[in-house]
Amino acid sequence: MLYPIIMAGGAGTRLWPISTKGKPKQVYPLLDNETLLQKTWKRLRRGFPARNIVISTDAQLADEVRRQIPDHTRGNLVIEPSRRGTAPALGLALIKIWKHNPKAIFVYINADNYVQKEEEFLRLLAVAERAVRQKQDHTLLIGVNPTYPETGYGYIKMGSQVMKFGTDEIFEVEKFVEKPDLKTARGFLKRWEYLWNPTLIVARADHFLSLYEKHLPKMWLGLTKIASAIDTPREAEVIRREFPKLPAETIDYGILEPASRMGRKEAKMLVLPGNFGWTDVGHWRAVHDILQQSSLSKHSASKGNICKAGKCLAVDSRGNLIYSLSGKLVALAGVKNMILIESENALLLCPRSRAQDVKKLVENLEKKGMKEYL
């Protein structure tokens, strides 16, 4: 069986001011009455037993995760004492799986992903697991066929075809391209070999941990110290002591990109293209698009405006997202393609095309010491 690892840490800064450090996007009901974490858990439970699903989060969110996912298997909640990035977080979850079954195949899944075609998503996971069973020393990524020229995503360029299962074709990874400019992204959209990279990683635990040893040796050394204490009375104490010492790094920059630069034969990286209605709920434009296109949108969508958690009146206005928690009436006149977000203590206004820049606002708030808004 496949072991899904749900990555449920992180701050979600591009969805400020609703997503905050105390309650980031993955544990907030952004789209409807369920959180993104709950949606991810329910999606995976359709295909996997609870005992196989691991949730990785940080100490600050652990109690909230327990409250939201009460039926998770005890022991399958992996808690980071401090936030060190996705590479240490995955490494900690992997060594716990590896200690019980080194040959276990896992899939890395971000909790903040929205999936419209859930059956197709689960089917592709089964295809990916089948491929890794045949190519046990390979890492497989599931890529997404792009539908528009997104500049905020990473891309995977496919190389030669390696395997085929029915209509599903699996290719070598030729290279990664991180967040291209608009002209480049438009060019990618016209070429079949470029896919969005949602960081859906499928591999054997022992193989992927060997990539830590090769590309992140200092992190690997710390993880081996933790591994020696797993399932002993010292486990919690050793994790608290050793985990904060691990270098801060992401999976993309720490493992995937260095591995891809080794050359195709040495990198042993594969990609399976898919089309399952994937969206990274990483900024407010994505929230607008999901609410507009999906059945979740029971909110006012007249003339193309999405009004969630508030009252709206619009004249000669379209393409706007209004997300207000105050209960005030929001009136629009001659406003197009804007985002207006109101929390208890902050108001955000920006064009939909600048949604990625919200992270810069959060960085400025941190620099100015305005922690009460974070």
From TrEMBL:
Residues 4-292 form the Nucleotidyl transferase domain. Signal peptide: none annotated. SUPFAM superfamilies: Guanosine diphospho-D-mannose pyrophosphorylase/mannose-6-phosphate isomerase linker domain, Nucleotide-diphospho-sugar transferases. GO terms for biological process: GDP-mannose biosynthetic process. GO terms for molecular function: mannose-1-phosphate guanylyltransferase (GTP) activity. Transmembrane segments: none annotated. Residues 311-365 form the MannoseP isomerase/GMP-like beta-helix domain. It comes from Candidatus Uhrbacteria bacterium RIFCSPLOWO2_01_FULL_47_24. InterPro entries: GMPP_N, ManC/GMP-like_b-helix, Mannose-6P_isomerase_type2, NTP_transferase_dom, Nucleotide-diphossugar_trans. The lineage of its organism: Bacteria, Candidatus Uhriibacteriota. Pfam families: ManC_GMP_beta-helix (PF22640), NTP_transferase (PF00483). This is Nucleotidyl transferase domain-containing protein.
